[in-house]
Every structure is written in C-alpha cells, then in structure tokens.
Amino acid sequence: MKREGLVKSLLGAATLGLLLWGGLPLYRHRHCDIAVVKGPGVTAVERLSAYSPGLRNTVADTSVFVLEGREPGGKAILLGDSHANEPEGLLASLIFIENAVVEKGTLYVIPFFNNSASRNTRPGDGYPLYFDVPTAWGALRVRMGNRDASPLDQWPDPDVYVHFPDRQLLSFIDVRNVNRTWPGRPNGPLMERVTYGAMEIMRREKVDVAVDIHGAETMFPVTNCIVAPEKSVRIATLAALTVKATEGFENHVEPSPAGFRGLSHREIGDASDTLPFLLEAPIPFLDQPTGPKTTKLILDGKDPFLLSLAKRKKLFVPYDESGWPLEKRVGQHCSVILEILRQYSKRNPDKPIVVRGVPRYAEVLKNGVGYYFSDPKKADAKSIVDN
Amino acid sequence: MPLVMIAYYAIAAFLLGLLGWNFVREKKSPDNLILYLLVMVPLILRLLRVK
Fold it and tell me: Under CATH, which architecture does the A39-386 domain have?
C-alpha cells in the first residue's frame, strides 16, 4: 500500500511537471501582449467590436488604428496578421502605425487582424513561439502565430465549411482562416464576425482601398505578387510596373479567381465599393521542405534545401545564398502599399491618399526593419496600445 | 461560448474524473497508471484553456 502510494505520487508529480513544462510557455504565449507605440500620425484607436458587436469580450477583438489626415481625401485600410504565421504583414502594418503621417485622406490599420491566430501556434511543425526583430535599443519581441484561429476561441470545426453567402464548400479548417471567411456575417462563426467587422468599416466609412498583407511559400505559384480582382487590376499593374522600374524589385500581378470564394481580394470587391489588393512576399519559413523552423529562418530566409531546389528550378521566385530576408519582404510590402495609394490618388484626384514618413524598399533593406520601431519602455504610457 | 463548447468542456471534465478515479483505484499495473496520466494530459490542457 505504501509502495503503491509512492509510485502514484511520483507518476503524478512527473505528469504535473510535464504539464507545466509544456503548458506554461503556451499559456504565456497566448496571454503575451505586444506593446504597439502609436506614431505621430495616429489620431484614434478603436476596437473592431465597435463595428462587429459579436466580437465583444472575445480574443478575436482587436485594435483598429486610425490615421486621419490634415486634409480630407480618400480612405484606405491595411490588414496585417490575417495569417499570423506570415509576420511581414504585421511588421509592415506596425511600420505604418509608428511612422506614417497622413497628409490627405485617412488610413485604418489593423495589425493583428486575426488576433486569435496570433496567440495560437503549430507545435507539429515546430514553430517558435516568438522571434526578435533586432533594433537599436534591443529587440522587438513578436508573437509568432498560426494560420488559423485557436480552437480555444472557435470550436468545433464543421466537417465541411459552407461559405457564407455563396454556400461554396471549403475545407473544414478554413472556418478558422480569416482569408476564407470574407465577407462575414454579424452572428456567424467567430472568424466571420472578424471579417464582418472589417467589411463594416469599409461600408460605413466608405473606404476606397483595402490592402491585405501576406507572405507565401517560395514553392507556391501565387507568391511575390499583388492579387487583384478585375476592378483593382489596373492600379495593381501600374504599381507593379512602377516598383519594378523605379525600385528594381519584381512583384507581378495575379488575377483574383472569381470562382474561389471567401478570399479578401475577391469578396471585399464584390461586397462593397472598396478596391481590394492582397500582397504576397515570399517567406521561406512557410515552405515544407526546409530545415528546422527556427527564428533565424524567419529573419534571414536562408535554407540549404530551398537553395538546392532553386538550382533545380523548382521555386517560383529567384533564390540564392542571400535567402529572402525579413527586411526584403517588409520593404517590398511598404513600397507596394505606398505605390498602390499613389496610383489610386493619381486616378482619383478628388480623393487623394497622401502618406509620408513610411520607408520604401531600399531604406528598409539598408536600415533593417527594427530601425523603424521605438522602444516601448521609453515611450509615453499614453502612446502605448497593448495588443 | 456556444452550447456545444460548454458540452465539450463538461464531457472533458467527466472523462478526466473517470480517468482520475481509475488512477486512484488501480492497484496492480504501473503501465495502466502511466496510460491514465497520459490520456489526462490533453484533457487538463483543454480544461485550463492552455491548448
């Protein structure tokens, strides 16, 4: 009896130890906020639940940064972290929040669009929970999330996701993927409520341009591009040609397929007057045949297996020993967004969107991404927004 | 929280209780003890809303 009690106690203690060892980092990751420093251009911070009440008191509710210009003009919305394992979208949108000053028009920026996914992870793929962006004052610690919202926040998954309103049958997992739940509905699954909130911003505020910022595998054909539907394709093409001619990087245009429902670049345009664009930058971390999924791979994008595949012409982007580093991906996004806004303003002189203070590709390459973030510890407490 | 999620948590708690009871009642097999504990791990993590 005494021995039995001892064995059970030891086994119980070992299990408790395992639970703490494995569970505590996940718990901390889920409850870790990132301090976003409001830049000089931020005029208001709202919550997405103000536009989609079904998000109130849920993890999916998230901050909406408003940068209103001194003069009226057009309006644009930027979405980062739609897929929270594609951090170039988050970092590009944070650069806009901290650095952009809007002279004409208004910018809405939602850096953690899928807030639940940004607090989720993919342990089966060995994802790191965080990565550090080097800065002059130390490092900005960023949550590395997952593509889909956490099942803790939206569950159960259906056998098949029946898209609303088109009733197209999509993969069950896409019910937690905000880039399949557009245009959303106020009382649908949580991720549909997220996209509904963004649609409501676009409809109520009469937003002219929407940019959904992503990353994509180098082995995926829709990478290093601007995805645009028919109504946005002219501006997308002009932006792609301009950045290639003036800044020297490729970012071709891909048409948004009309028959594939739920995607931002399709549904935003069909459900509102807004012109949607989805940006993809190649992120080697997402490719399957890579080495370990390390923070280094997130930052420098260098992988020997991808290099070997590149030599066999199996990738859809040029790839060499220099990899595809974070600053290149984020810099591309910054330049392409600025160029889309410029091209829109040229075509719509009565509704210009003029933004200054945001670095372009060459500057981000030269200075690094961290250069554009200030130290939250030294910032005024009123200018910090935890998300 | 939707009703189905509440039901799921209730079922997880019930199964956890059964496993705990079996763990306490088990007298002979150390293998079974380990198996009970291993099966409890995901249920505990879910009930604590960790994973």
Answer: 3-Layer(aba) Sandwich (3.40)
